[in-house]
Amino acid sequence: MRWTGQELTTEQAGALPGLAKLNNFVRSVQTPEFAGITFHEILAKSALNRVPGQSALPFGYTINPYRGCSHACAYCFARPTHEYLNLDAGKDFDSEIIVKVNVAEVLRKELAKPGWGKHPVALGTNTDPYQRAEGRYRLMPGIIAALAESGTPLSLLTKGTLLRRDLDLLAEASRRVPVDIALSIAIYDDNLQQSVEPGTPSTKARLAAVTAVRERGLDCGVFMMPILPFLTDTRAHLDDALRQAKAAGASSVLYCALNLKPTVKQWYLQWLERDHPQLLPRYLELFAGGTYAPKEYRAWLAARIKPLIRAHGLEGGRTDPSTGGPRSSGLASSGSLIAQEIPPELAPTLF
Fold it and tell me: Which keywords annotate this record (predicted)?
């Protein structure tokens, strides 16, 4: 990288407060093509993040090329991570994007170490690797190539239709290692989708991406996560959503009810009060007990959606033991059915 020889041991003039003290900060960038967004380029010291051993997640490591996300989803669980940098979890999270410009090079070095065990690696577990920034920085091709060439299985979850740019690369990688792909598509009402996820591609565009993945011979799951109480949990909305996912070629559907961590709750309820004020009292009651919707609501939702999932033939692909995701069709066919519902304590890491 052109930044490698630059001294980065002092506070950087013009940097935001939380970034000024980072000794790997390079520069901040604003461009007309990304109005309202500032990219803060840093040199990553590591690429692989180890998942704690006690976690029930089906993968051992994650990679997050970006921090912050221009998708601007009001419900995004990852918002509190920006507070570590003295940035707020609201507008700053949506518009102050940290970019690990050397992440692919660092990853290659980590994968080349003798002790690397080719553990499954997940992308999209925190912020989206195919958010708009990826169109400028093109970090994912290098990451995908490094993982495939090292024999490391990978899974990928995204709302970003920029995924289609890399489908040939992903199809090639799937001939070398297990590659599991899923699109996060939770909302099938266009007005609601643009209100609560204003920076995301449309539902129609994401469904087209599902079809494009399938046309490359790969399975593609759909994550209907989160389901928003009193907004997207009607039988009509769920049935229509599953119908559209099936028509697009989805291999399976996973779902989970909305979770609201304390910091996220603040921003989500601000959105709710602005756009759906009549629902605010019901949400305050529903989430009075904390982060998760009550067990009674989750049981009610399960009783409503699971028969619909079965009726549309979306009960599941097969679990790839190497990645924990739905198995790609180009791989062997053995494996157990994936669960239809993500446990609430795991769901915040997956959308």
Answer: Iron, Iron-sulfur, Lyase, Metal-binding
Q: Residue 63: in which H helix or E strand, if any?
A: strand 61-63
Read off the pLDDT of residues 61-82 as tens digits, 9 standing for 90 and up: 999 999 999 999 999 999 988 8
Cis preceding linkage at 226, omega within 30: yes
pLDDT at 131 exceeding the cut of 80? yes
pTM of the shown model? 0.86
Sheet holding 66-67, edge to edge: 25-29, 38-42, 96-100, 66-67
Q: Which amino acid is at 188?
A: Y
- In this structure, how many other beta carbons lie within 10 angstroms of the beta carbon of residue 204? 15
Other CB atoms within a 10 A radius of the CB of residue 237 amount to 17
Other C-beta atoms closer than 10 Å to the C-beta of 226 total: 28
Question: In angstroms, rounded to a whole number, what is the distance separating the alpha carbons of residues 274 and 222?
Answer: 29
The phi, psi pair for 162, rounded to 5°, reads: -60, -15
Angstrom distances, CA of residue 149 to CA of 112, 178, 219: 10, 12, 21
Domain 23-349, what fold?
TIM Barrel (3.20.20)
* Contacting residues for 78 by C-beta, under 8 A, at least 6 apart: 69, 93, 126, 127
Cβ atoms of residues 185 and 160 within 8 Å? no
Per-residue model confidence (pLDDT) at position 346: 53
**Burial (CB count within 10 angstroms: exposed 0-12, middle 13-18, buried 19+), residue 262:** exposed
Give the largest CA-CA distance in the chain. Answer: 60
